[in-house]
Design a protein that fits this description.
- The protein is mainly alpha-helical and about 160 residues long.
- It has two domains: about 80 residues, Orthogonal Bundle (Rna Polymerase Sigma Factor, Chain: A), CATH 1.10.1740; about 80 residues, Arc Repressor Mutant, subunit A.
- The protein is about 75% helix and about 0% strand.
- The chain contains eight helices and no strands.
- The termini are far apart.
- About 25% of the residues are buried.
- One of its GO terms (molecular function) is sigma factor activity.
- Belongs to the sigma-70 factor family. ECF subfamily.
- Pfam families: Sigma70_r2 (PF04542), Sigma70_r4_2 (PF08281).
- This is ECF subfamily RNA polymerase sigma-24 factor.
- InterPro entries: RNA_pol_sigma-70-like, RNA_pol_sigma-70_dom, RNA_pol_sigma70_r2, RNA_pol_sigma70_r4_t2, RNA_pol_sigma_r2, RNA_pol_sigma_r3/r4-like, WH-like_DNA-bd_sf.
């Protein structure tokens, strides 16, 4: 197995889930994930190793998704805010399928920056340092942004009790 195959097998699912969490469309996520790995193969020689390869792939995926939106003038479909919830932590609720769907809907309705930071932190399991690097910001910025996004999610959940 070549290094490229190993990278593909190791990170495909993570990249796909990240793009799917942004697009909420299986076909778009598949296309952009494939495009991400094609771009990564083309740019592999320019990868300097200053960041984790997963961070680099997520950055390519994020940029590819936004390029897709610009090209298709896609308007994000804001979905309904979920109904009743309790005060359990968001991370624990994601484990329950029904609660997970409710939280995904709320996350999908967040402003793009919050949505991406939450997705990278909770589903991509990236550190604040890695998230900050993706956005060209500090790890403190990533931490504060994640905190604010979680606060907004909790507010939306309480509104619908």
């Amino acid at each position: 197995m070549t290094g490229l195959e190993e990278i593909y097998k190791r990170y495909f699912k993570d990249v796909y889930l990240f793009v799917y969490s942004l697009s909420k469309n299986r076909h778009v996520a598949e296309d952009i994930t494939s495009e991400t790995f094609l771009k990564a193969i083309d740019a592999l020689d320019s990868f300097e190793g200053k960041s984790d390869i997963k961070v680099w792939l997520f950055q390519i995926a994020k940029n590819s998704y936004y390029s897709y939106l610009r090209k298709n003038k896609h308007v994000v479909n804001r979905q309904e805010i979920p109904e009743e919830t309790d005060d359990t932590s968001i991370e624990k609720k994601v484990l329950d399928k029904e609660e997970s769907m409710r939280i995904h809907k709320i996350i999908h309705a967040l402003p793009d920056t919050y949505k991406e930071v939450v997705t990278l932190r909770m589903f991509g399991e990236l550190s604040y340092k890695d998230i900050g690097e993706i956005f060209g910001k500090t790890d403190n910025w990533a931490c504060v942004t994640f905190y604010r996004a979680r606060k907004k999610i909790n507010e939306k959940m309480r509104e619908n009790k």
